[in-house]
Amino acid sequence: MIRLFGILIGLGFTVVVLWALLWGAIEVGPVLAEHKQFTEPTAEHEYHREPKALHLSTDGPFGKWDLQQVQRGYQVYKEVCSACHGLKFVAMRDLAELGYSEAEVKAEAASWQVPGIDATTGEVNTRPGKPTDYFPSPYANDVAASSANGGKVPPDLSLMAKAREGGAAYVYSLLTGYREQPAELLREFPDAKSPPGTYYNPYFSALNIGMPPPLTDGRVTYADGTQASTDQMAKDVSAFLQWTAEPSLVKRHAVGWWWVGFLVFATILAWFSKKQVWVPIKPKRAKA
Ligand code: HEC
Question: What is the CB < 6 Å shell around ligand 1?
């Protein structure tokens, strides 16, 4: 009798589950048909590429900043990217971490114009930066930024290397990824032609980016004699943006190693104290 009951309840459950499955399948059909991207291939899906590999000196648990490289990256940011992108979370005094002396940091800060207030009239103006200032944004607000860039706002770059999947490698790939739109893409997706004012870049998720290619060979002149190829500048500025996004990266690794050492030490200590505690309780094995 009890067995029959069990079988009936089991059957009841099975029917309910199958019923739910059937209705689910019926309902999901039209939803999929409405969202074509789930069923039909799109240009973004077919042609978007994952970031290229980028090797930086900070890679791995023993990585260290290559200060020469990060300084070169700062130069690229200053001479090229800062025309459109801000770095509002980075203070100029932080440049001291890149190996600049106090006098050099002061001179660097003074070479930037930051928003200020006229001491007599109270009007808004600009003044040379001080080490305590943050890097200024090139536009007064997003409306100005967007109207100067064909409707696209250049994002602040302070945390960009943390904000995008792939980090510094993404920035590097994006800067070196501009190319002609492949003919085969246009054949497959005739509607996907880059709209005016955008540039084809397969590392950008929308494939067409509103940023004109910012780097060309020899765009800056490096003081340390490094050849300023597009690839080199892209690597350097990516290293710099990795630093702005996580200045404490190397310190974090060092602290991690300190903790590993401490935990190993604590484990050994615990082992010996365990032995000590058990001495009176565990009789020594009698010798045969
Ligand atoms: C002429 C202005 C201009 C310059 C110079 C410029 N950018 Fe941009 N950048 C833009 C605009 C506009 C966008 C937004 C594009 C969009 O959303 O389609 C952008 C977007 C970006 C993005 C974000 C892409 C994303 O995933 O959203 C990164 C990273 C970037 N720029 C890095 C740089 C770096 C590094 C430099 C210097 C080597 C630089 N840009 C120079 C205008 C510029």
Answer: 76, 80-81, 83-85, 149, 152, 154-155, 160, 164, 171, 174-175, 204, 209-212, 214-215, 237
Asked if 185 and 223 sit in the same domain, the reply is: yes
How does DSSP classify residue 200? E
**Last residue of one domain, picked from the residues 80, 102, 134:** 134
Cα 119 from Cα 116, distance rounded (Å): 9
Rounded distance between C-alpha atoms, residue 116 and residue 155, angstroms: 23
106 C-alpha to center of ligand 1: Å? 28
Number of domains the chain contains: 2
Spatial separation of the C-alpha atoms in residues 143 and 118, rounded to whole Å: 25
Q: Backbone phi, then psi, for 127, in 5-degree steps?
A: -145, 160
Band of the pLDDT at 181, cuts 50, 70, 90?
very high
Model confidence over 190-228: pLDDT tens digits? 888 999 999 999 999 999 999 999 999 999 999 999 999
The residue segments making up the domain with residue 120 are 91-134
- DSSP summary character for residue 92: G
Residue 273 lies in a domain: no
Tokens of 256: 């991690």
What global pTM score does this model have?
0.82
